[in-house]
Amino acid sequence: MLQVENLKMQFGGLLAVDGVAFDVGDKQIVSVIGPNGAGKTTVFNCISGFYAPTGGSIKFQGEPIHGQADYRISRLGMVRTFQHVRLFNSMTVVENLLVAQHRHVNTNFFAGLFKTPDYRRREKEAMERAVYWLKKVNLLEHANREAGNLAYGQQRRLEIARCMVTEPKLLMLDEPAAGLNPKETKELDELILSLKEDYNISVLLIEHDMSLVMGISNSIVVINQGRPLALGTPDEIRNNAAVIKAYLGEA
Amino acid sequence: MSGLPSNAYTPDSKLTSALIASGVTFALAFAIMGMKLQGGLSPTLEAASTQTYVLIFTATALVFLFQMTREKISAFFSFIPWPRLPRYSTAHLSQSKRDQREKVVTLLFVIAALIWPFIVSRGTVDLATLVLIYVMLGLGLNIVVGLAGLLDLGYVAFYAVGAYSYALLNQYFGLSFWVCLPIAGLLAASFGFILGFPVLRLRGDYLAIVTLGFGEIIRILLNNWTQLTGGPNGIGGIPKPALFNLEFGRRAKEAGNQPFHEFFGIDYDTGYKVIFLYILAILLVLATLFVIRRLTRMPIGRAWEALREDEIACRSLGLNRTIIKLSAFTLGASFAGFAGAFFSARQGFISPESFSFIESAIILAIVVLGGMGSQLGIILAAVAMTVLPELAREFAEYRMLMFGLMMVLMMIWRPQGLLPMKRPQMELENV
Ligand SMILES: Nc1ncnc2c1ncn2[C@@H]1O[C@H](COP(=O)(O)OP(=O)(O)O)[C@@H](O)[C@H]1O
Ligand SMILES: [Mg+2]
Q1: How many domains does chain A have?
Q2: What ligand 1 atom has the least distance to the C-alpha of A38?
Q3: Which of A97, A201, B324, B356 is the most exposed place for a label (fewest CB within 10 A)?
Q4: Total tally of structural domains belonging to chain B
């Protein structure tokens, strides 16, 4: 589904990402791990089109997407969350999900002005999809609250729901468990697995919580100071000498 | 991270800023008033009178003193009980209740607005029509500034495009007001689109400067393209709109039309024309209100709000920010076009003078004063901004000064505007 080859991203004199390569197959969960400042978020920014990579290639479903505008990449079916939650804070929870469905609703000016049947139908469908995902992430009772007033864990879940209403093929989560308590982390673990099993999507995950990563990943990419350090299944990574050295050396 | 907290206001930095401020005052005042150019062909610089110099030094000293004692002054002002506006809030009501209330209030307003012109004088109705034009302009600019968050300082350009569309199409092709009204809107919208396309990539202040420039370009173009627009002399004899085939002049100007008073067998009175224009303006404003009301509840309205809140999140969800901003710009411009066509019909005469920067400033002031995004607030602000100058004609010279003072006071007293907007929120029922 997603192929990243020899990805390079240079900021002035700083080579933040240097030669990172990995594949994400259909219905797979791939995790990117590494110490802070390793370049994980930068890899996400390159894939999702926020940065134009300075080298390498990125292919999504066989098509090169490198250098395309961010909103186009998202429309291909790749949506992401952010390390620091980015919700539309003064809009209600349900509105956050409606904005995300902008392309699914009827945006024709006159259709909206006169509420044509097609417009009403699509607005209704969008609302139903929003309700469905609010139930799924357990936020239905908060539907009419302003997103900025939710608790942190709820905001994280809303951000994931907001991605899911766009019906993506690949979901990219940047440290979704950061700041969650153990119970919430476990729920997140189940949610991610269910997204993969029930909705046939692939997940690309950046995460520091090792038990979460080891438990659900099909494969793991380890990045250190921008360079790929190891790539393999959780078991392989756990026993990889270089990884152990880097992590223990750092700790 | 780094950098001093802004409230670290040491005596030392106070002295520096006071010196800088008074220095600037002195330099500007001296350059502008302290020297005079004399003689026509080979001008020479001459010193101004002693009196002027005394004034310049006094002003400089005053600025210095003010800067040194600023904290004490503002502390003193905070003791003054500023008048408080009633905080009318409907936040506790559900959206459907709020909508219902809004409908009732609007209906009452409309009924009052329709009865009122038959009671008051002709001059008052005429002034009210002018107010309504500004209401329309305020509402249109509000789409751009209040809803989409784009600072447009050249809005008057689209107003001019609308006005000249009707005037020119009528002059050269004899098209009637009703044909020209949609054309004027479309033309203004196309200008908005063409300007917006390259410009909307720019951020905040840059956008403001480019739109400001655009406004001036249009005015200068109209002023200098004498063959087409008549230049500074403007265009006169623009006909008033007709009601179907009834005209409001003493005699019908167009073949097949009939004067209004003859048709009804009543005496000729210019009052009918004034009232007709007024009612037409009311209808245009109502249509504008309806469209904007719908817009705030439509996907595009949600997208504007979302884009103001978090542009990066929008992009990550596949929203094309250029198109979304462009739609606000284009729609806003089209309302200025309608208002412009109506304006030239009402005036019967237009010239580039009517479309100078001050008009943009007035319209923007209406939006800011009313409370960005708030419809009722904008109506009130438009009334205030047009009626007050009429009442205080003696102070016409000080208009700009009062303007500035009012803006400063607003920023201190009520920065969110008279009636800050509560955006209609989409709510899920039965939860
Ligand atoms: N826009 C940018 N400009 C300059 N340097 C950047 C930019 N984005 C990231 N970096 C640098 O790239 C490196 C990797 O950052 P990041 O990808 O955020 O790390 P991680 O997500 O793994 O913690 C850091 O040294 C960071 O300072
Ligand atoms: Mg990061």
Answers
A1: 2
A2: 22
A3: B356
A4: 2
DSSP H or E segment with residue B410: helix B399-413
| Alpha carbon distance, N-terminus to C-terminus of chain A | 35
Q: What is the pLDDT of residues B218-277, one digit of tens each?
A: 999 999 998 888 888 888 888 888 777 677 766 666 666 777 666 676 777 777 788 889
Domain-embedded: residue B165 = yes
Same domain, A11 and A71: yes
**Strand ranges in A39-131 using DSSP code E only, listed in sequence order:** 55-60, 63-64, 78-80
Which H or E run contains A232?
strand A227-232
- Closest Cα to atom 5 of ligand 1: A11
What per-residue string of b and e applies to B140-149 under the rule 16 or more CB within 10 Å gives b?
Answer: bbbbbbbbbb
Task: Residue A223: give its domain's CATH number.
Answer: 3.40.50.300
Any A CB within 8 A of B186 CB: no
Q: Quote the tokens at residue A113.
A: 């002005």
Closest Cα partner for A162 from A94, A104, A107? Answer: A94
Chain A and chain B share a number of CB contacts under 8 A equal to 106
Cα B188 to ligand 2 centre (Å): 46
Clarify whether residues A202 and A242 are in a common domain. Answer: yes
Tens-place pLDDT, residues B70-123: 777 777 766 666 555 555 555 566 667 777 877 888 888 888 888 888 888 888
Q: What is the ipTM of this complex?
A: 0.92
Domain annotation covers residue B45: yes
Q: Are residues A141 and A202 in the same domain?
A: no
Separation CA B154–CA B215 (nearest Å): 4
B82 occurs within a structural domain: no
